[in-house]
């Protein structure tokens, strides 16, 4: 039945299209055809105007001034070559130009064609002299000026030189290629039949796209009809030898004249595709109607299967059994709009990030991501980003701030990005005052990298030392934090920068805790200097015991004692960090022995990586308490409440599946097998909300979804979420601050 019904509109459409092809559709296509020709004629007019402007420009150029009068071009061969080259440039500026030549009158006329030659042919000289004596400074003509083909007439544009002179000494002559002009004329219409021609209003110029003569019967007949119209432009139907032609004409405003362009195409060329398509539609529709009975059973089985598969992918958790009233294509449209909106947002973000390409390149360079590039490629890219690297040497600094825990409330953990941003601004300002080229990278973790580009061969130790001291004082005074600055050796190769940066980052971890500010020079750093602090094994065992027995307060106190034992006088940052990493390994082992999987407890987080990225001593303890102790203690507590949580999960699932019904605390308690008092008390403790508030919130969320994504009436929406219409309006306005109707209007506007 579907195919039968689908075949009938096709037949009707074919009949209507076939009948309209000779009437209204023919007029519409003719109008579209005429608009297309007018648009293409404007393009041709623009090409001719550009050619006129180009020649006028050169006519007033100093190359063609009075200095050419009586000039000896044989002796002054440089001037001769310059004129020849100029004419060649003009000749190649437009595809329609066949030749650009310069004629200079005198006792011995001279012709640049475009090479220099002295004219001796009196017949040819007389033709050029007629161009000079035409009484016009600039004009179009149609002359035979080719020395080799003196009978070949070409469309020619003439401009006397010097431009604006009352006594011209010669003329710039541009001859157009007849074939190219005919090709441009042929572009006026996409059809091969018919005729396109261009002519001067007085009949002095004439060019045909198909090579027909001006006195041919068809051209003369069309010209007569155009002249009888008496309009500047227009179109009409013209009968000739049993054919109907669509004729479009108009005028070009040329210098001191008007040109007429005419395009005549058989109307059958315009309507033939429509007639053919209508016949094809009729044939295909008839065939479909005949085959409908044979294919109906198979099509009804298979036709919906692609939509069904697509819906299963779009809504994998929805049941297709009860979706008879759902518009699947509306759902597909919503999904498509969602994906399109996400695509536009991603494109906008990409455009916003394009301005940070330079910073991104430096970040990749310091991190070693550009290791595959050669030294020449790196230099080329940096110069392209407007760094001056030729004859330069490079120094890398790593600046790290410490002491955020001792800032008396000015900043706290979590403000590292803000503090780093402030320090980077100081670094950039001071570096700009001390060095010609410097670039700073913000790592947003109290650390930043600085690339200094200095003149090659000049000493740089003292300037870097002065810069480091000023930066240290500024950070101490304004941010109240301590500064560690690691300075690399000087380098002459850009490819050595990533390794140097890795070295200064590693060197910064060897700072001493008792020093307020430190400047570490890589060339003077001794990694084996200083004694290693002892590891407090006793405190580790006591901490693990408190952790296993659930004594959270004791565990936190022992953790502080453990870190204090690591941070003895002379200890380095890396020593404390390694000690805390060792303690983390012992804690993970204890957790595993207790029957708890660390991956599940810590949600797959790489705790070793997080701890290894931290630099602040106080941050070690806070991180350990938040990321290790608290989850483990919570797990111990949750084990006793597991059964209660399972019951509450069953209650929430029941409410989510039956929110549209008249459910209560009593029937929900009966469903999960408990009493209403226990359900109410446990529901509040587990979810943080009482039973009625959770049910109301669930119903309103479903109602807002229906208001946004459907056209259901407000009372229908209220019924589908389990409310009476009047009560639904009151509770919605009370909790959302607006009526359901207003909420739908605002969501549609967004």
TrEMBL record:
Domain of life the protein comes from: Bacteria
Domain HTH araC/xylS-type: 649-746
Pfam families xrefs: dCache_1 (PF02743), GGDEF_2 (PF17853), HTH_18 (PF12833)
Recorded coiled-coil stretches: none
Subcellular locations according to the entry: Cell membrane
Membrane topology per record: Multi-pass membrane protein
Keywords attached to this entry: Cell membrane, DNA-binding, Membrane, Transcription, Transcription regulation, Transmembrane, Transmembrane helix
Protein name: HTH-type transcriptional regulator YesS
Encoding gene per record: yesS_2
């Amino acid at each position: 039945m579907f195919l039968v019904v689908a075949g009938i509109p096709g037949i009707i459409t074919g009949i209507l299209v076939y009948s309209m092809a000779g009437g209204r559709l023919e007029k519409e296509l003719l109008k579209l055809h005429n608009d297309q020709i007018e648009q293409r004629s404007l393009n041709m007019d623009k090409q001719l105007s550009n050619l006129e402007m180009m020649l006028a420009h050169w006519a007033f150029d100093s190359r063609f001034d009075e200095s050419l009068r009586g000039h000896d071009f044989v002796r002054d061969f440089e001037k001769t070559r310059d004129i020849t080259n100029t004419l060649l440039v003009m000749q190649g500026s437009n595809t329609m130009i066949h030749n650009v030549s310069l004629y200079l009158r005198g006792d011995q006329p001279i012709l640049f064609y475009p090479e220099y030659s002295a004219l001796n042919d009196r017949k040819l000289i007389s033709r050029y002299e007629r161009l000079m004596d035409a009484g016009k400074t600039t004009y179009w003509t149609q002359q035979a000026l080719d020395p080799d083909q003196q009978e070949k007439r070409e469309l020619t544009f003439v401009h006397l030189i010097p431009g604006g002179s009352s006594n011209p000494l010669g003329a710039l002559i541009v001859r157009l290629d007849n074939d190219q002009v005919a090709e441009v004329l042929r572009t006026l219409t996409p059809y091969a039949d018919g005729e396109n021609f261009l002519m001067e209003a007085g009949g002095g110029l004439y060019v045909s796209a198909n090579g027909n003569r001006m006195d041919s019967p068809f051209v003369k007949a069309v010209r007569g009809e155009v002249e009888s119209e008496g309009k500047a432009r227009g179109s009409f139907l013209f009968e000739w030898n049993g054919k109907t032609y669509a004729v479009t004409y108009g005028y070009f405003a040329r210098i001191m004249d008007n040109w007429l362009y005419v395009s005549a195409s058989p109307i059958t060329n315009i309507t033939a595709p429509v007639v053919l398509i209508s016949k094809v539609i009729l044939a295909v529709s008839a065939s479909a109607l005949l085959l409908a009975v044979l294919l109906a059973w198979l099509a009804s089985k298979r036709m919906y299967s692609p939509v069904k598969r697509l819906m299963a992918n779009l809504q994998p958790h929805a049941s297709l059994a009860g979706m008879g009233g759902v518009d699947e294509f509306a759902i597909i449209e919503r999904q498509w709009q969602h994906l399109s909106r996400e695509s536009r947002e991603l494109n906008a973000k990409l455009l916003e990030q394009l301005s940070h390409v330079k910073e991104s390149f430096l970040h990749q360079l310091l991190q070693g991501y550009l290791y595959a590039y050669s030294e020449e490629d790196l230099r080329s890219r940096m110069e392209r980003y407007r760094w001056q690297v030729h004859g330069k040497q490079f120094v890398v600094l790593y600046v790290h701030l410490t002491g955020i825990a001792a800032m008396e409330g000015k900043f706290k953990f979590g403000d590292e990005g803000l503090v780093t941003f402030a320090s980077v601004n100081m670094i950039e300002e001071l570096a700009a005052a001390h060095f010609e080229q410097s670039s700073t990278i913000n790592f947003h973790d109290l650390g930043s990298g600085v690339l200094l580009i200095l003149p090659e061969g000049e000493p740089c130790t003292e300037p870097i030392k002065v810069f480091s001291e000023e930066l240290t004082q500024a950070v101490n005074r304004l941010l109240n934090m301590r500064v560690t600055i690691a300075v690399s050796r000087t380098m002459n190769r850009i490819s050595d920068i990533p390794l140097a940066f890795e070295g200064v980052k590693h060197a910064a971890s060897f700072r001493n805790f008792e020093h307020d500010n430190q400047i570490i020079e890589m060339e003077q750093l001794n990694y084996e200097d200083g004694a290693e602090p002892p590891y407090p094994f006793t405190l580790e065992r006591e901490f693990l015991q408190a952790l296993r027995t659930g004594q959270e307060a004791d565990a936190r106190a022992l953790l502080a004692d453990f870190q204090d034992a690591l941070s003895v006088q002379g200890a380095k940052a890396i020593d404390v960090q390694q000690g805390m990493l060792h303690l983390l390994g012992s804690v993970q082992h204890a957790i595993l022995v207790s029957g708890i999987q660390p991956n599940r407890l810590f949600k797959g987080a790489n705790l070793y990586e997080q701890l290894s990225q931290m630099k602040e001593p106080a941050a070690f303890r806070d991180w350990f308490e938040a990321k290790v102790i608290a989850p483990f203690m919570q797990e111990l507590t949750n084990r006793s409440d597991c059964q209660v949580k399972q019951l509450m999960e069953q209650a929430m699932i029941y409410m989510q599946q039956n929110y549209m019904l008249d459910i209560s605390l009593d029937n929900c308690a009966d469903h999960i097998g408990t009493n209403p008092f226990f359900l109410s008390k446990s529901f509040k403790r587990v979810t943080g909300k009482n039973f009625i508030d959770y049910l109301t919130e669930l119903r309103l969320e479903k109602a807002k979804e229906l208001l946004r994504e459907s056209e259901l009436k407000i009372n229908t929406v209220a019924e589908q979420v389990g409310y009476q219409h009047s009560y639904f309006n009151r509770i919605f306005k009370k909790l959302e601050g607006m009526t359901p109707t207003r909420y739908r209007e605002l969501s549609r506007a967004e």
